[in-house]
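Researcher: I'd like a structural prediction for the single chain below. Treat it as a standalone chain; there are no partners to consider.
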Amino acid sequence: MRQGWRWFGPYTPVTLEDVRQTGATNIVSSLHRIPIGQAWTELEVRDHQALIETTPPGRTPLTWSVVESIPIPDAVKRRGGAAKVEIEAWIASLEAVAACGIDIICYNFMPVVDWTRTEIDFITPTGATAMRFDHDRFAAFDLFVLKRPSAEKDYSENERIRARESFENTPPEEVAEVARIITSALPGSTTEPLTIEAFREKLAAYSGIDAPQLRQHLIEFLEAVTPAAEARGVKLTLHPDDPPRPLFGLPRVASTQEDYAALFDAVPSPANGMCYCTGSLGVRADNDLPAIARRFASRIHFAHLRATTRERDGLSFQEAAHLEGDVDMVSVLKELVAEDRKRTSKNTIVFRSDHGHRMLDDLNKTVTPGYPAIGRMRGLAELRGILFALGAPPT
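Model: Treating it as a single chain, here is the predicted structure.
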């Protein structure tokens, strides 16, 4: 397995020199500056690749191995194969990436909002901080800030009562902060930052689109792009929904083992793969993570390894340290290692320690929310330790 690291570019706090010191050798990155829906050019990809792969004398080489992500425009999620211009632009980006020798592309199909949290610096018992999703705060935003029409029907009476109590007992500045976090798009998001009014308009545009329709649109997208990927040796890896359940009355269709099975059955191309994210999938107690890894082993080309802790209500959760929480990371890695041993050195699984606690000196610095250096380095070291114990040291 290959050690990866998410790098957001030259103007972010964690530098490539920092990455080398973590032990990671494979960079996971994207052209974040290019607007969603605009085709990437080969020149733009090569320029970014040169930043990553031009190695100073005496330094460890780094390789850009995974593109995370080429964002899928909203029009594709709403219209499926009918969004021909947007799909053609996406294929052009794929072709530019493939021309540069990068053969893993991660993407997601979450409508309106990408990965969602309500707190970015929740204080843990150790004094480190973590990302957190508080269901009561989320419902309070939906019901009393966004004031989404018919939102009440998506919450039980008890949930609505707790949401109102949360809203009334939370200082206005904290309510505003929750709204900012949800609407502004977290790091690496593939959706647009939105005002409250724009948020309402985006939601309204999905009126009448249920889970079967959204799944069909995803299938139509895959039917259009997988031939280009397969022809160029590119593996597409679909990231799970985060959290893995409907939000704001919108369906989500990459949340369970059954969701992925339906997509692989519909588009059986070997280019149609998954990004195996233990944190996202692990939020659902009914997702058996080792079983999912075992069933879809040949489809896993990229893995996000992190842990989450489900809270008492079964809906709230927080980011845990990588070997804690509700994810049995040892069992997960046993499955991934078993698959990886079947592969050649050129197509082994790229994994990265996903997210990480903000801790130690990072508490005194500006960091990218969810992506501090020290917490992720701790996670990578712990994952590396498991792999060594399994007799499969990472590369």
